[in-house]
Amino acid sequence: MVEPSPLHVPVLDWYENNARDLPWRAADATPWGVLVSEIMLQQTPVVRVLPIWHEWMKRWPTPGDLAAEPPGEAVRHWGRLGYPRRALRLHACAKAITDEHGGEVPSDHATLLALPGIGEYTAAAVSSFAYGGRHAVLDTNVRRVFARAVRAEEYPPTATSAAERRLAEALLPEVGAARWGVAVMELGALVCTARAPRCADCPISQVCAWRLAGKPPHSGPARKGQTYAGTDRQCRGRLLAVLREAHGPVPKMALDVVWDDAVQRERALDGLVTDGLAELLDDGTYRLPHS
User: Fold this and answer.
1) Which residues pair with 250 in a beta bridge?
2) Is there a catalytic annotation at residue 154?
3) Among 59, 64, 156, 220, which residue's beta carbon has the most beta carbons within 10 A?
4) What is the number of domains present in the chain?
5) pLDDT computed for residue 63 by the predictor
6) At 280, which helix (H) or strand (E)?
7) Cα separation of 250 and 254, whole Å?
8) pLDDT band, very low/low/confident/very high, at 224 (cuts 50, 70, 90)
9) Of 209, 225, 241, which one is at a domain's C-terminal end?
């Protein structure tokens, strides 16, 4: 029997009154819709995901619909969400669900974990949010809330630790674990944010160990913000945008004009081919995979 935590009631009450109305949380959301949202939301804010998620669910409302398309179409309709290998992983996942599970997203955590591109977090999130399973769902927001509220630390470790998992599992309520998981996640996204936590609006500020300790600053390695301008990621994005918009093979000269640094451009283009995001054809043109 799990003892109730003083965090449970205030967080759940706060969520009841402050939760965003997101389509993958709706009562009629499908497990496939939840899975797509979880992959898209990795390292990407909700405001950017929403229009692409709606487009995907209209175009591919079931795993079988996506599996029937070539993987290049998944990359094309990924738009500018970034980290486009996620589109390929979703396509591979859709094929596995269609071929091995009759087109139904599995509910079992271990079975989900065996799908292509599905890690511990995503398996727990889908099993929990789509099927009501009792799993510790540890994304960046949840980890930050627990680090502050329980361990009096401004930020969690860089990588999820065994201690964090034990804490999250210990805090899972016996009933309503799925709602608890999404409520803590929402609290971290809207109130207990990384850069400017709104402690005055926090429902657990009175019991938050970090606040009670005087908000000690992070004592671990410096947290570096991600740069984008001028990086290989930006170059890859420019090249991929040309391929997405072409709807067919693209001559090399059309790619050369989008990035001045030839060495970086060739490295990025080779990387796209290696990662399966682009294909080099015999005539020297490029295209999205199998499109």
Assistant:
1) 286
2) no
3) 156
4) 3
5) 98
6) strand 279-280
7) 7
8) low
9) 225
